[in-house]
Amino acid sequence: MLSWSDHRYGSVALGAVAFAESSFFPVPPDVLLISLGLGRPRRSLWYGLICTALSVAGGMFGYFVGLALFESLGQRILEFYGAMDEYVQVGRLYRENLVVALGAAGFTPIPYKVFTIAAGAFAIPLVPFVIISAVSRGARFFLVAGLLYLHGERVRSWIERYFSLFTILFFVLLLGGFVLVRWVL
After folding, report:
1. Of the N and C termini of the chain, which has fewer Cβ atoms inside 10 Å?
2. pLDDT tens-digit map of 81-109
3. How far apart are CA 153 and CA 5, in angstroms?
4. Total domains present in the chain
5. DSSP state of 69
6. CA distance 119 to 36
């Protein structure tokens, strides 16, 4: 993964993964963001911006899928992830508190794509959706990018030493996000 930092298309790959993860892809961009930031700590904030901007754009694509293509595409994506029951609960959460529901989904390992598709399907107003997404996704990605920018080389040696543990922890958190959505919602 660290080799992406020297690849001339590393930023493009990061943007593509960030976009796709917000609407249909299961792997979050954090792994690539960390890899790029570890390889080039001084560019970490740039990588955080790419990740945030393309994640929000991908969220808007997910919103469009929910709004205009729910029956033909959105429902299939949610069924693929076994998230149809959660979709109904997300609608309830949006009615109760849009800011908390979408903000938590944007910042935590909760599968954000369920929330983006549901936002369109439930016709959540687009402007608040974009603002909340930008703030929550930006907070998530710039937290990582900022730590890498400030502590890149120290963090790099630490992560290289404990990479296996971090990988296991990352996937436990990712799976935990899916379980949390299923259990809480």
Report:
1. N
2. 888 888 888 998 899 999 988 988 888 87
3. 14
4. 1
5. S
6. 31
